[in-house]
């Protein structure tokens, strides 16, 4: 019984080690392809558009209501203690440092990362990757590097956009639900927050983009076993990205504070 | 053109190619036949360096490719046009872009207009003019096959490999495809390897045959000698008999 459990533990450990090793190996290949830059610019543009521009509506929607919800949750206490001068600061601090990057990172992983894994995985099982290699095209330069760059750039930009929208949402809900005027919100926001609060979150956004891009590409190109394999890969990729985001969030928060 | 000796390939502990030797003269036309799962596709993919053999040697047009890194494989791969068994069309490109893609890569100086024009010419030859702006997902199986053939022959590569060029096609289209392959071959003088399970159709196109079974050659030589081959398995396979070692 215990032996069985130990064996299973060992097995999972080996499996995880295999995936982590794969991601690191891929990272290495991506870096080699970047210095000097040898990747397909058209592919980069195509991906920037597909992954970034097309994500704007859903990001705006999520961010707006997230900002709002934070104010709704605290409205009762703000009214009870008359702590209106804290709302702007509280909302900004939480959105910039934590809620913005984490929520948008997970959202991005769910929308763009999973799509990316499925796309690359399908290309593997339909021999399109072999087709590229047979045409003397390096799939890392042609497919992976543009996707990694596009995801890092876009999650970074989308986080900036999301931050702004979330703050706007918080201000709006604050004035409606907690009687905090825009002026009071702005004073509290601008006097207590520092640029470091923003950059703290943006560092996270860049790292999360990096994690989502590498894991989603790795699980995509390492697909084995038909459509079932693609499904499993998408699943694993989203789980791995979420774990990576939470773990790195912890590490970044710890080291930057 | 191709010289293979003592080629061995193992994947996941399974020996899939087990000691293959082959010599193919420049400009010759070979058919590859054999029971399903025998290693035909694997063999031709290994020829373009898509799998790494455990040992043995593959010389393509004077270059040893076993042990070459991916970047150093580039010049060799540019000499090969390949139709994959399930076509491997790029589903993020339109039909004409798929066909033009190998040429665009080989000769980056060509303009989009020239590429499109050349692509349309090839599409006309395979009878697909009018489908150039479709996506691969919008095509039938036979149409995809023909797009694959157009793409494989786009650069007039000196070595062309067709993996099942006529699978799933009706007899009329099949003979049209073989006529087309023959026409392209005459224009370019390319060396050709063609895998097919339709021995009869294939025989109208190729001059030589090889039969692969369980990762080994059971026969290699001129088409005329295939029927005289003494191997009982070959005997059974080419006659389609139910009784025998298979
Ligand atoms: N990528 C791969 N990984 C592991 N095993 C493989 C791979 N590709 C093929 N095989 C195995 O190699 C053997 C030969 O496969 P191959 O595709 O070469 O057969 P084939 O002769 O082309 O058959 P068919 O006529 O059905 O196309 C099969 O047993 C198959 O399971
Ligand atoms: Mg095959």
Concise overview:
The complex is a heterodimer of chains A (257) and B (246). By secondary structure, chain A is an all-alpha fold. In chain A, 88% of the residues lie in helices and 0% in strands.
Task: Report what the structure shows.
- The complex is a heterodimer of chains A (257) and B (246).
- By secondary structure, chain A is mostly helical.
- In chain A, 88% of the residues lie in helices and 0% in strands.
- Chain A has one domain (2-256).
- Chain A contains nine helices and no strands.
- In chain A, helix 2 (41-52) runs parallel beside helix 6 (139-177), helix 3 runs parallel beside helix 6 and helix 4 packs across helix 7.
- Chain B has 246 residues and is an alpha/beta fold.
- Chain B has nine helices and ten strands.
- In chain B, helix 4 (112-125) crosses helix 5 (141-152).
- The model of chain B has no long low-confidence stretch (mean pLDDT 93).
- At the A-B interface, helix 5 of A face helix 2 and helix 3 of B.
- Magnesium ion (MG) binds next to helix 1 of chain B.
